[in-house]
Amino acid sequence: MMTADNAHLAAKIREIPDYPKPGVSFKDITPLMQDAAALRDAIDQVARHFAAADIAHVVGIESRGFIFGAAIAYALKAGFIPVRKPGKLPHETHRCEYELEYGTDALEIHTDAVRPGERVLIIDDVLATGGTASAAVELVNKLGGEVAGLGFLIELGFLNGRDRLKGHDVFSLVTY
Ligand code: AMP
User: Fold this and answer.
1) 134 lines ligand 1 (CB under 6 A)
2) Beta bridge partners of 107
3) For the chain, which terminal residue's Cβ has fewer other Cβ atoms within 10 angstroms, N or C?
4) Atom of ligand 1 nearest to the CA of 27
5) pLDDT tens, residue by residue, 35-76
6) Which residue's CA is the closest to the ligand 1 atom numbered 19?
């Protein structure tokens, strides 16, 4: 899937060198969110891409995935499901651990969040290595849900996260 030419959105993404650690160029989306037209356009573009995908629920990944995920759910007239860091969800959860550069991290979902066969769209702000997104895919699959696609504002193409999401419709607005 080609990404759209979104120079006007790219112009609203601030790059912070060496944050949170040396060598990382952090993509700060707060200027994009602050801009009414850019925020609306980003949400609309992702919603439009998945408009015919019969999405029952949008899964947003903590925490920036919540902001866009909830808005995209509203636009698609779908429900919203949070996927969160360990210990944040109050009810019974499934957990998926995934590798980081150093050590592991984990994500959780409520066990009653998705019903078998439901079509789910996963949303986060940045697709980097794809570890976070593929953990979310695993959680949805564990509940019997069908991942109908994944949407991101930003894709770091040089990290090849897309390769870990093979077979899925991966849509992003701005690629680096
Ligand atoms: P990954 O699991 O490597 O695909 O990393 C994706 C997660 O880490 C997303 O939830 C992003 O919010 C965050 N992330 C990774 N790299 C960056 C970056 N360069 N700038 C901002 N957020 C990032």
Assistant:
1) no
2) 96
3) N
4) 20
5) 999 999 999 999 999 999 999 999 999 999 999 999 999 999
6) 26
- 101 is a catalytic site residue: yes
- Rounded to the nearest angstrom, the distance between the alpha carbon of 134 and the centre of ligand 1 is 13
Sign, Cα dihedral of 76, 51, 164, 154: negative
* Nearest-angstrom CA–CA distance, 152 and 172: 5
Strands (E), the chain: 14-17, 25-28, 57-61, 79-83, 93-99, 104-110, 119-127, 146-155, 170-175
The set of residues, in sequence order, having a beta carbon less than 8 Å from that of 22 and lying 6+ positions away, is none
**pTM: predicted TM-score of the whole model, two decimal places:** 0.97
User: At 74, is the secondary structure helix, strand, or coil?
Assistant: helix
Pairing relationship of beta strands 57-61 and 119-127 according to DSSP bridges: parallel
**Catalytic: 162?**
no
The two three-digit tokens of residue 143, written as one number = 């509940």
User: What is the CA(133)–ligand 1 centre distance, in A?
Assistant: 10
**Among the atoms of ligand 1, which is closest to the Cα of residue 130?**
4
| Sign of the Cα pseudo-torsion (14, 136, 79, 62, in order) | negative
